[in-house]
Amino acid sequence: MTSHLSELFRKYRAWCPNSDARPLRTAPPVLATPPDTLNPARPGGGAGGSGRIDRGIRLATGSIRILIRNRQLLWFSLFTGLVMIFSVVSGLYLQFISGTALFPGTDLATGPAQVMISHGSLPWIALTFIIGLVSTFITYYLLAALIACVSLIHSGHTATVRDGLAYAGQYLRPLFSWAIIWACIGVVFSFFTNPSTMGTEPGDFGIIYGTMAFMACLYALTLFVVPLLVLAREDLAAAVTGSLFLFRKVWAEILVCFLIYFLIVFAILLTSLVPMIAIGFSSGSASAAGAVVVAYMLVMLLLVFIGSTIVGITITGLYLYGKTGILPAMFEGKQNG
To answer: What is the mean pLDDT of residues 272-292?
Structure first.
């Protein structure tokens, strides 16, 4: 694999007479500049509000098209889905042993009679941090590998999941550092959103919604940290500031992309719910109704898993556009991918 990546590097750096003497890490193959980015005067899809909306639509639809044409990327959906399941199950178990009902307001899966680890205690903080760190680090590692694969496709090459994972392995340290930061933020978020006391005190919902809004804004502002770490080889501090700069350039495209994805998911869930209700609940059978609920949850999980890969592809496209000012041709179906 190293020789394969080295060949790609020499091919796309052949214009430099000393390129063969440089180490591989100085110019990773996924950073190869394709011919369509060499002309900065080429239009990127129009100017003004209508142009930004059009670019957002093309990035969203192009991301779906890229995944359909490169179905090997669905492995990232599977891996990310497993990480999500681990995070949810471990989080619910920690909530259970903390004496908190898994579903507040119901009699389903209440906590044990004796609290094993109290919410907010040092053991609880340690376990919450470890669970968040493991799930976040693996998620960022998978995202980095997906970004590497999409960048290789952007350069006109066939990208395998193994190639992406191997390339992302070179950036484990900065990815781990970024995961530590988000794990700490997750601990703070969990501390202020204790389900056992949620809504029992005045202002609780204000704290909860304020914390969630802060988390969402922080995630959006740091959307390009991983691409900058992996593709631009920036250090963590430069990647965070660079992400803020890129977000300011492409915030409208981001909004359009995620609005389109929301509408697609809503339409799929709505169209799948109608026949499920008609078949399951019209029979009057409790088992049929339960099967409908399970099937609907599986549809939602499938959408989340596949959607995570589509979003990763979109992040790469937004990053490439933000850096070059040119919409990548593969998002318009004009290039491999």
So the answer is: 71
